[in-house]
Amino acid sequence: MIEAGDIKVEMEHFSFEKFRSQLNEILYTEIKSMDKSTLAIHYSPDTSHQDLYLFTDQVKLLQIFSNILKNAVKFTQQGSIEYGYALGNGKDVRFFVKDTGIGIAPELQRIIFEKFRQADESFTRKFGGTGLGLSISKRLSELLNGQIWVESEEGKGSTFYFMIPCRDLSWHSSRGNLADSSALSFLHNKTILLVEDEESNYLLIKTIMKHSEATLLWAKNGKEGIELIDSHDEISLVIMDIKMPVMDGYEATRMSKILRPKLPVIAMTAHALYGDEEKAFESGFDNYIPKPINKALLFSILEQYLS
Asked: Cystine design at 152: which of 77, 80, 85, 104 (Cβ 3.0–4.6 Å)?
């Protein structure tokens, strides 16, 4: 279809944070199927702007990411995989996937984006694959008016970059200042339950949300959280810590989904390893936010489930 020019670009607005949940699903499915649970996964957004909204073809962006992430898992036996983005000039966004895998020799890097080619023909026998993934990713990047390239050192891993003009600047201008309650209208009359044993984290969330019109309830462990969920039907969303006394976040989330299956539960965790994140989703978490808490990222996730 690409060769025949039959691929159409379908532009749409979407949140990268929501899109990222699809990337995680691809990553952890691939890791599980290849029995590489020791791989550490790291997410590195642009620290200056983590509430990224995009305007591009979401399906094609997912195809590009998927091909590169699957290759990263395939060719990395131990270590880590890191992915994220940096903002360029104007609407350009530079995405990347970095691994600690086998790497690619300099003289072979130019051929890997060609059809049916891999860096070493023996890879087909050892790792499988057709050698089409990167070629398709290159063509899709060009279709989105972008480009793709690799930086790699044999035996030390690879970093794949693809830059696409897709940043949605209109979303940021329409949101205004997050300190302005009008920008947080999706929180109006909402009740949020924070299940967290550390008072300092409760005070942080309380401070972050002080300009919103939401009500914040606090439970100091999973057992207290379940009791509040059972007795307060007005709770719209739960932010759940993982490690707590009496009852941890995994068990509390499983029980909350029995009581209220459609109640969104967001994990709040500092863990980055594959096993922790997979266990979180298996327990019923709908999404997660890493510690330390970023204000813009928190509001972006809340808006996904409360708007």
From this structure: 104
